[in-house]
Amino acid sequence: MTEESLIEKLQVKKHPDVVTMHDFFLDHFVTYTAEGGTVESFMKRLKSLSRSGGGQLTGESKQEILRGGKSFNSASALSSLGAKVHFISRTSSLGLYLMKYFLKGKKVDLSHVKTDGEMAMTAAIEMKYKGRMFNAMVSHLGSVRNFDFEDLTPEDLDTIRKTDYLLLTEWSLNSRGTNLADGLLSFASKLPCVKFFDPGDPGVRPKDIPDLVERVLLKPDFDILGVNESEAVYFASYFYPEYLKKKGEVETLGRKCASILAEKLKKRVDLHTSRFTATFKGGKEVIVPTYKVDVLRVTGAGDSWQAGNAYGELIGLDDYERLMFANAVAAYYISNPAGKHGTIPDIINFIKTSSLRKL
Questions:
Q1: What's the pTM?
Q2: Which residues, 6+ apart, have CB-to-CB distance to 53 below 8 Å?
Q3: Strands 276-281, 268-272: parallel, antiparallel or unpaired by DSSP?
Q4: For residue range 159-194, what is the model confidence (pLDDT) as tens digits?
């Protein structure tokens, strides 16, 4: 059985080397809970509050402060799994202090974090819409908005040369993201490490999609493109503009678009959705359902999945096992009351006691 084979492989301790870059955020989560925690009830209360000139929504939410940023969250999750992680970024002195606080007890190399910048922050408001959790994020981008390849030091580049896996995220929030991706992936193209690129939500800068596709995605400089369903649709629209206007089940459409991207870009595309995840390469598709859990948070789910996906690749799991493991890592995180990233023993126990969805 796949589950038994996966658990057996996970019990062999391995510590692959991973570089993640470049976004760290201080995240303030506001989970709206009143009247079912729906968008409709929130907007009703907000409009009522605005008519009275403002005030408090006391007792109407659960709130917590957590680490944020795609690559920083992935670094935390990878470290929990046992990887040796190097995080490259720019923030403020306070930002570095908070990184150390959030990573207490974990072995993440922060020596490549520059502190001559500005800390990025996000307020994430989580609510329900048609029975499903979603988040609306209000962000101050700080130094995430302008990190470029020229900001990397000789020490940074030397660390990248030695790594097993290079994880680059958040093009969407970085005005210099195309320059960074182009320069970094070109530099790394001849290195033996696995190169994974997660651009983030292209919907925030749709006019820049063609430049990214032509300067980065169509080049053979990296190995894997990571997307969710809506991101897959946006990038596939570069080749087929009509897909942005298509209606229907977004996960089904995202699956089709991820397949198109794998064909057009001639590289592997890894797709993650709330119901299933999939890998597309060379005309082949592997799809695995996600786990059934009580969802306590949605922000950071993709980052945890990305960490599991990378770790699974590095320890030699086959495609189905890798996706199942990544799904377990993400499911453990989104159902954990403390927002904790799981260790290998945590994930093994989770797999033994949890069930996959039916597709």
A1: 0.90
A2: none
A3: antiparallel
A4: 999 999 999 999 999 999 999 999 999 999 999 999
Confidence category of residue 250, pLDDT binned at 50, 70, 90? confident
Question: What are the φ/ψ torsions at residue 278 (nearest 5 degrees)?
Answer: -155, 155
Q: If DSSP states are collapsed to H, E and C, what string results for 298-347?
A: CCCHHHHHHHHHHHHHHCCCCHHHHHHHHHHHHHHHHHCCCCCCCCHHHH
Q: Domain coordinates of the chain in residue numbers?
A: 2-26+69-120+144-353
Q: Which strands form 25-32's sheet, in the order they lie side by side?
A: 61-68, 25-32, 120-129, 132-140
Give 259-280 pLDDT, tens digit per residue. Answer: 999 999 999 999 999 999 999 9
How is residue 281 written in tokens? 């390469």
Side-chain half-sphere exposure of 276, counting CA atoms within 13 A: 17
Distances (CA, A) of 196 to 122, 138, 156, 170, 305: 24, 26, 17, 12, 13
User: For residues 299 and 245, what is the distance between their CA atoms, to the nearest angstrom?
Assistant: 27
Give kind and range of the element (H or E) at residue 109.
strand 108-109
Q: What angle do CA 221, 301, 256 make, to 5 degrees?
A: 55
Q: Is the pLDDT of residue 1 over 70?
A: no
Q: What does DSSP assign to residue 290? A: P
Q: How far is CA 168 from CA 64, 92, 135, 267, in A?
A: 27, 21, 23, 16
Q: How far apart are CA 49 and CA 62, in angstroms?
A: 19
d(CA 32, CA 125): 7
How many beta carbons lie within 10 A of that of residue 177, not counting itself? 26
Looking only at the bridges linking them, the beta strands covering 113-114 and 276-281 are unpaired
CATH topology for the 2-26+69-120+144-353 domain: UDP-N-acetylmuramoyl-L-alanine:D-glutamate ligase (3.40.1190)
